[in-house]
Design goal:
The complex is a heterodimer of chains A (325) and B (270).
Chain A lengths: L4 E2 L2 H6 L6 E4 L9 H9 L5 E5 L4 H8 L3 E6 L12 H8 L4 E4 L2 H13 L3 E4 L14 H4 L16 E4 L7 E6 L5 E10 L4 E2 L7 H7 L2 E10 L1 H4 L6 E3 L6 E4 L17 H10 L3 H13 L4 H8 L1 H7 L17
Helix pairs in contact in A: 2-3, 3-4, 5-7
Chain B lengths: L14 H11 L6 E3 L4 H11 L6 E3 L4 E2 L13 H4 L4 E2 L2 H10 L5 E5 L2 E2 L5 E2 L2 E4 L2 E5 L6 H7 L2 E5 L20 E4 L4 E4 H5 L6 E6 L3 E5 L5 E6 L5 H5 L13 E2 L5 H11 L8
Parallel strand pairs in B: 1-2, 1-5, 5-10, 10-13, 15-16
Antiparallel strand pairs in B: 3-4, 6-7, 8-9, 11-12, 13-14, 14-15
């Protein structure tokens, strides 16, 4: 049992080694540790292995920026703000990222198994599809299932017959225990208790499954405050290794009760970064060309950020114009 | 609501309105519905405000039976969880709800479909020869495999209605049995886990359903289109012998609910 250490964004990312396996908090365009992903590019990390129940803007940044070698997960896009992960599509087509596909249920089962310390998870979801086609096993085709890679299972899945209740055949999916869990949470307590203010997604599972966990938060609050309502919290301090304080760290993804998703930013990114030189231009402007996260926020400006700020009544902004009326 | 239950006439509604009304009719009262972003949100919103007030909606990020006052634009949105009975995470959605057998109805879209209701949402090409990568399965394969009924929402184009998919993301009524990959009836792979499958496919031109053998047939054609129009936009030999006529347009009351209650901001409606 340890106590989480408060460090800077630069120090936190400096702990990650090239080739490490990472998993993230959040869901599609919500509660992603974006500031940490920008810093990963600034520090020039490479050959990263991402395990993602599903990806989003943050994955597009890491992949577009050339930091990723292996990607496994079920989905990568920005929902209606970008129906395809355009950087991922380009990099996979160019064979610069090795991809292994799962269904959401498979990926959820894998991180759940990792989080509770069992080696596999049984599931009957998404059987009979090309997700399970042995010829399309991307990691096997790259020779990575030879047992010498500690974060890659020796088989993508196996089919077993229920020995107990004669339910027939189902899948066993291997657990995953990434090296690093990069978790965005709005509030962390002084002792490291973690709270999120909406759907919990897979955040607890990521915290428990990963060898080491960095939580990047909007603010540190007295642990006593979070302990008044323990049912609202998702993790205890001894499960967390490092804490980084970084306001608006999830932008342009949203953080319920703090800020809404920045739809214009996300839509614009998706529409404009199909080609590598266009991504590079984006990265130069928003990632490499700024000194630190505060300069990034300065660039976005007060008006933009205030428009995104969430209502304390509903958890989302009442000021963003979302539709045509 | 003051508008009548008479059907609107051509020119008084838009294509999206008819799709939303047709999709909403697939929802029964008390159904547990697993929905995604976009048209499914309009459909479940319309159904809950009309004929299916007790239907419950699950979104895959973990909100259960939310009562949004503002239509969500993402399934992870705080708007989904407003007034929800529970707001958990993905494990709750995929295992606590779907795998455990609570889900009556799913709504899904896809880039391509075959005549057994298999969907591709992942590739142009295959992982070995990827020309374009779409988003991937997400919950698509899971929902189609386990919901009792699933309504598939597609764009009617010949290249999207294809004899055989290069890549099957999600299982229809005939699925691949591994390791050989031969197509067999879904029941043979799923056994006691076979709770149902695709029940309807709604496009911008027609509604299709699936026969006793799991094969797609034409059910109704939307006003303004002919059976021949539809046939020319399907890449396999389509069974038209069971066509029962024209798709019912939205009613004035449905239009009022859609535009005044469900999506007044004009997020998904034109």
């Amino acid at each position: 049992m340890g106590v989480p250490k408060i460090i800077t964004l630069q120090e936190a990312v400096g702990l990650i080694s090239d080739g490490d396996c990472l998993a993230f908090s959040g869901f599609t365009i919500w509660r992603r540790p974006v500031a940490m992903c920008y810093e990963i590019l600034r520090q020039g990390k490479k050959d990263l292995h991402l395990f993602e129940v599903q990806g989003g803007f943050h994955s597009e940044v890491l992949i577009g920026g050339g930091a990723v070698k292996l990607w496994e997960g079920s989905w990568l896009a920005q929902e209606i703000l970008g129906k395809t992960g355009v950087n991922m599509s380009r990099k996979q087509s160019e064979k610069k990222v090795i991809v292994d596909d799962y269904s959401h249920g498979h990926a959820v089962g894998r991180i759940m198994a990792g989080s509770i310390g069992v080696p596999f998870f049984p599931t009957a979801l998404a059987m009979g599809t090309d997700i399970l086609n042995p010829a399309f096993d991307g990691f096997a085709n790259a020779g990575l299932r030879d047992g010498s890679h500690p974060k890659i299972a020796k088989e993508k899945y196996t089919i077993v017959k229920d020995p107990f209740y004669d339910m027939g055949e189902l899948l066993l999916m291997p657990a995953i225990n990434p090296n690093w869990g990069l978790v965005y949470a709005p509030m962390v307590g002084t002792e490291g208790t973690v709270r999120v203010l909406a759907q919990s997604y897979n955040d607890q599972d990521v915290i428990k499954a990963c060898d080491k966990v960095i939580v990047i938060c909007e603010e540190i609050v007295p642990d006593e405050f979070l302990r008044r309502e323990p049912t609202q919290n998702i993790a205890s301090g001894y499960e967390i290794d490092y804490i980084v304080v970084c306001p608006w760290a999830a932008h342009p993804t949203g953080s319920q009760y703090y800020y809404d998703t920045d739809a214009d930013f996300l839509r614009g990114f998706n529409a404009s970064t199909k080609k590598q030189d266009a991504f590079d231009k984006f990265a130069e402007e928003y990632i490499y060309g700024v000194e630190d996260h505060y300069e990034y926020l300065d660039k976005l400006g007060v008006k933009r950020l205030e428009t995104l700020r969430a209502s304390q009544a509903t958890g989302y902004s009442s000021r963003v114009k979302r539709g045509t009326r | 609501m003051t508008a009548s239950n008479e059907y609107a006439k051509i020119g008084e509604y838009k294509g999206m309105d008819l799709l939303a009304a047709a999709a909403a009719r697939e929802v029964c009262d008390f159904d547990v519905v697993f929905a995604g972003t976009g048209l499914p949100m309009l459909a479940i919103g319309l159904a809950q405000n009309e004929h299916a007030p007790h239907s419950a909606c699950i979104y895959e990020a973990g909100s259960i039976d939310g009562r949004p006052v503002d239509i969500p634009t993402s399934v992870g949105d705080a708007r989904c969880a407003y007034q929800a009975s529970c707001a958990g995470g993905l494990f709750e959605a995929f295992y606590g709800q779907l795998h455990s057998g609570y889900v009556d109805l799913g709504f899904l879209g896809g880039a391509e479909i075959d005549k057994y209701g298999n969907l591709n949402t992942t590739y142009v090409g295959t992982p070995l020869d990827c020309k374009v990568r779409f988003a991937g399965s997400g919950g698509n394969a899971d929902i189609l495999s386990f919901a009792r009924k699933t309504v598939l929402i597609m764009v009617q184009e010949k290249r999207r209605f294809t004899e055989e998919l290069e890549y099957v993301t999600s299982p229809g009524w005939r699925v691949k049995k591994w390791p050989s990959g031969e197509y067999v009836p879904k029941q043979e792979v799923y056994g006691k886990f076979c709770y149902g499958g695709p029940s309807a496919c709604i496009t911008d031109m027609a509604i299709f359903r699936f026969d006793e053998t799991g094969l797609m047939y034409l059910d109704t054609v939307h006003p303004g289109f002919s059976v021949e129009d539809v046939k020319s936009k399907v890449g396999f030999d389509l069974n038209i012998s069971r066509c029962s006529g024209e798709t019912k347009p939205p009613t004035y009351r449905q239009l009022e609910i859609l535009y005044k209650v469900v999506d007044p901001e004009g997020i998904f409606l034109p």
